[in-house]
Design a protein that fits this description.
Chain lengths: 99, 497
């Protein structure tokens, strides 16, 4: 049975930049464990003859021609942004993980 | 941590270097990897975006067929195998340069694997093994606002432009390259140069390192001499010129040796390269940040290139670089040494293109290897990034051949081109560089020269035509080198007949 610890939930929250309090971690970790257990029961149905599947349809090579199609105007693109400056999305500073 | 640098020769007495290179190449497709937005450089911020590359809900990616074709052609040109079946994967990370919170990449199923590239350094050949090349997408461009340096540290907030997000990238990864010893920095540089030459030949990318369409990360480690082990590596990011590749390897070798000599351990981390000083500084540690939780991209079906297609692409590959080099040496009549210099200077394609525009091979070599190489060296840039094009060189040479420019005037045209003074014609016009062959203007200068040197004039009158050289020299001097020397000679002989 897969197990997810409180520490792993804290780590995942950190990766996803979600600030969780101790109380939230206590609350969420067991809930995630329940979800994992539910999914694990499906794993039991798959025999060795069933390969892992990433896509439900037996398709390959769905391609598009290299032709430009109109997209959004800058105004449309930025219309949902909480903050805009110099026609760019303005985001809070992010420290410690410059990509 | 100590930052004592050990002299390069001393490093080699005690350690063996191993290095690896990760090269990102932006493809020059019309559109992005997964949507139909234009993939061109330099548009207004956020003017080349759509719901897919902005990661808006409900949008779905579709793979650009041309990008897959380019990836396969690159793989074949690098002597690699093409996967019969491979998938894209989500590389999850939370940083605003990708609005989706993941980058669509490939993980354990790259489209290209097990290739190699032979590179030559000082007459010796080194085989660089290529582990993989995979398809992915570029990220958006973030600008950090506030803070003293404009870097992220101390920044108050960041501005993001997503025009670049989704542009097709191919990442080419080598295996660790060992056994190169003192040549390590040169082999690293030669590999990137050879790779660039191949990509240029394939026509799949602009491969402009100065503009970021080719970017290089340098991994380096040292191990005790002859131990046969691999040490802990550091990864130096965004090394953006051929010269910097060499310098980054050299600097990290010296830095690692200083730390190891002091009995300390190398800290596995990302380093930033500084073009101005040729040094590196610490970036982020390789740790939790690299926990990308890769998983297969559910929105894209697998790519399974048909073998017939792969063979078709193989058959249409341009000539292999080594074959091409040998052929061109014969065609151009260059000596072995001349050809080696041309190759080392990264001038092969430039000369080829110049010859294709009508210049002779000798003239093309003269300009690229003397005048322009010197300017590139002075500026610390690669020849290809100097800003003078083969078309311009051919244009200038055509004017020299036609007699309307002298070599001396041509050099001034190149000076003007390098200074950004406009087109060849504009520079000639603005600087007044055209050869003077108008008899009126030349006649006056010739009369002046004859009057100034009566003794020489007498000799010529007496039948000594060789003496005309002194008068031609005087006319050239008084016209600032702009006179048509052939016409000047004719005028002198006419006047003194």
């Amino acid at each position: 049975m897969p197990e997810i610890t409180r520490d792993e939930v804290a780590h995942l929250a950190d990766l996803a930049r979600i600030d969780l309090s101790d109380a939230e971690l206590d609350h969420l970790a067991p809930q995630l464990q329940v979800i994992l257990e539910s999914v694990a029961s499906i794993q039991g149905l798959a025999g060795d003859d069933v390969p892992a599947t990433s896509h439900p349809l037996p398709m390959t090579n769905v391609f598009r021609e290299d032709v430009v199609v109109p997209g959004l105007t800058p105004e449309q693109a930025l219309s949902g942004a909480p903050a805009v400056e110099e026609q760019r999305f303005s985001v809070p500073r992010i420290l410690g993980d410059e990509q | 941590m100590s930052e004592t640098l050990v002299a390069f020769d001393e490093v080699l007495e005690r350690y063996d270097p191993a290095f690896g290179l990760e090269v990102h190449v932006e493809l020059n497709t019309n559109t992005k990897m997964f949507c139909g937005c234009p993939a061109t450089f330099g548009g207004e911020p956020n003017s080349q975006v759509c719901p897919t590359c902005l990661g808006l809900p409900g949008s779905m990616p579709v793979v650009n067929a041309k990008a897959v074709e380019s990836a396969i052609r690159i793989g074949l040109a690098l002597n690699g195998s093409i996967a019969e079946w491979c998938r894209f994967a989500r590389k999850n990370y939370f940083y605003p340069d990708m609005p989706k919170n993941f980058q669509t990449s490939q993980y354990d199923e790259p489209i290209v694997y097990d290739g190699y590239l032979d590179v030559e350094v000082e007459g010796e050949t080194y085989r660089v093994e290529i582990e993989r090349a995979h398809m992915e997408e570029d990220t958006g461009k973030t600008t950090h606002i506030g803070g003293a340096t404009g870097r992220i540290h101390g920044a108050d907030y960041s501005l993001v432009d997503y025009n670049r997000a989704g542009i097709p990238l191919i990442e080419i990864v080598t295996r660790p390259i060992i056994g190169t010893g003192a040549k390590a920095p040169l082999v690293a540089k030669a590999y990137v140069a050879a790779l660039r030459e191949i990509l240029l030949g394939l026509g799949v990318s602009d491969v402009r390192m100065d503009q970021g369409s080719m970017r290089c990360d340098v991994n380096l480690s040292l191990s005790p001499k002859d131990s046969g082990e691999l040490g802990t590596r550091t990864e130096t990011k965004n090394v953006n010129s051929l010269r910097s590749v060499e310098r980054a390897v050299r600097f990290e070798m010296s830095r690692h040796a200083g730390i190891l000599d002091a009995g300390e351990a190398i800290f596995q981390e990302t380093r930033h390269f500084h073009e101005d000083t040729g040094t590196t500084s610490a970036g982020r540690p390789k740790s939790d940040a690299d926990d990308y939780r890769y998983f297969p991209e559910p929105d894209l079906v697998p790519v399974a290139p048909a073998r017939e297609w792969v063979e078709e692409l193989r058959a249409s590959l341009p000539e292999r670089t080594a074959d091409k080099r040998a052929r061109l040496q014969v065609e151009w009549g260059y000596s072995e040494l001349e050809m080696r210099d041309v190759w080392a200077a990264g001038a092969l394609s430039l000369i080829e293109a110049t010859v294709a525009e009508g210049a002779s091979a000798q003239a093309a070599r003269k300009w690229w290897m003397a005048e322009l190489s010197r300017s590139a060296n002075d500026r610390g840039v690669e020849l290809a990034e100097l800003g003078v094009t083969p078309v311009q060189v051919a244009e200038v040479q055509k004017l020299v051949d036609g007699g309307s420019l002298t070599d001396k005037l041509a050099r001034q045209v190149f000076e003007g081109l390098l200074a950004g003074e406009g087109t060849v014609a504009e520079i000639i016009d603005a600087r007044g560089l055209a050869v003077v062959s108008d008899d009126g203007a030349l006649g006056a200068a010739v009369d002046e020269a004859i009057a100034a040197q009566p003794a020489v004039a007498d000799k010529i009158r007496g039948g000594n035509q060789a003496a005309a050289g002194a008068l031609i020299g005087a006319v050239m001097k008084s016209t600032g080198g702009k006179a048509d020397a052939k016409r000047v000679r004719e005028l002198i002989l006419e006047k003194l007949a």
